[in-house]
Amino acid sequence: MNKIFLKFYQKKLFTLKEATKIIKNYQVCKNTLKRLISKNQIKRIRNRIYYIVPLDNPDFYPNHIEIASNITQDATIACTSALTARSLWQAEDTLFLLGSYAKTIRIKETTYKILENPYNFGFEEIEYNTGYSTIDLKITDIERTIIDCLRTKSIPFVDLQKILKERNLEISIKKMIKYLEKYKKPILYNKVGLILDMSKDNLKISENDLTDIRKKLSKKTFYLKEKGLRLIKPKYKYYNKWNIMIPEKVFELIPSEALTIKS
Question: Residues 66, 130: contact at Cβ < 8 Å?
Fold first, then answer.
């Protein structure tokens, strides 16, 4: 049995770079991979990414998040995909990752959306179970994940708010403000403040924490726009505490007593 096949049998997914550590001669390694593909012992996903075809499961296909983490050498799982990696959200047919350049890659029925990332902050590694092995996965931390989800509108606001309201998450307000300052997008203060305010009891966030964010609000009134929702009244209502126009379905989730707080 070929040593590449044996080496990666448990891991399943591997890259050309990893394979060349087993067979150090590049051309010999490439020829070996071609031979293994012809024997249907491995399959190529794209370019330099391959996976083992298990002896007892010829229909096997690797975990989509693991594929995403290998799409580029500097890939970082982000947005809703970072939520999925934490078992907070079920990914759909689009996976998000950060890289050195923006690009969209389609592999079978899945879209891998690479977002250009000029910011070197908010990363961490977690142990991630693919279903067939455990890997070290580089993802955005929870603070940056929340901000990026709001920034990209990659998840409906009410769904993200439900996660924050119902799951036991530890959020650092200092980190959130630090990250927001780096993004330099005024609307994010309004969005982040609103969603944390609506989830503050579960997140154990104090009014003083929220005040620190409110101090950063600009005088401009922003809209909490969502994908697929047109900017037509009366679908939006004004919430003075965060100086933002929000969809009625979000407005209805705000406790009546909170609406009396003056900005």
Answer: yes
